[in-house]
Amino acid sequence: MDQFKQGMRQLAGAVTVVTAGKHDDIAGLTATAVCSLTADPPRLLACLNMNGVTFELLRRHGRFCVNVIGEDDLRVAEAFAGMGHVPPTGKFGVGEWEMAEDRAPRLRSALVAFECKVHSVTMLSTHGLAIGDVTAVHVAPHCGPLLYHDGQFAGLAGLLPA
């Protein structure tokens, strides 16, 4: 188990904040276990701890949003990971969020945000694998992506030549 965890720390991943819920009943968490699943129809996969509030709201409301975090939003990633300073207003007090009547919260400064309707959820050990039908995509690249590697947040130093 320790060797597995040590090995997985070497797998760099894009940092996302997965949000769920609506109105005042919202939650979110920082995650790297997110990936595309199919392009036609557009679907993605997000793996969330089943004991968390975000997973509970995802199941209850049937919607979630995957916000891909850029280097400029390190504070957002830290807040939703429980690492940084969280204001008295809560995690959603860090960053500028769009709250809509029928959708999960969307970070306005996200490099890309995928709004999803839950297609299915598979329970596996401690995590739920949520498959989402992508209902909207908001692309606004303005900086490099935030990555997570070996227990630390990092940015891209530069792209390799093609």
Characterize the structure shown.
- The chain is mainly beta and 162 residues long.
- It has one domain (13-155): Electron Transport, Fmn-binding Protein, Chain A (Pnp Oxidase, Chain A).
- It has helices at residues 2-8, 53-61, 74-80; strands at 13-14, 16-22, 25-31, 34-39, 42-49, 63-68, 97-98, 106-107, 112-124, 127-139, 146-149, 152-155.
- Strands 3-2-6-9-10-5-4 form a seven-stranded antiparallel sheet, sandwiched between helices. The protein has a three-stranded antiparallel sheet with strand order 1-11-12, with no helix packed on it.
- It is globular.
- The termini are far apart.
- The model has no long low-confidence stretch (mean pLDDT 93).
Short summary of the structure?
The protein is mainly β and 162 residues long. The protein has helices spanning 2-8, 53-61, 74-80; strands at residues 13-14, 16-22, 25-31, 34-39, 42-49, 63-68, 97-98, 106-107, 112-124, 127-139, 146-149, 152-155.
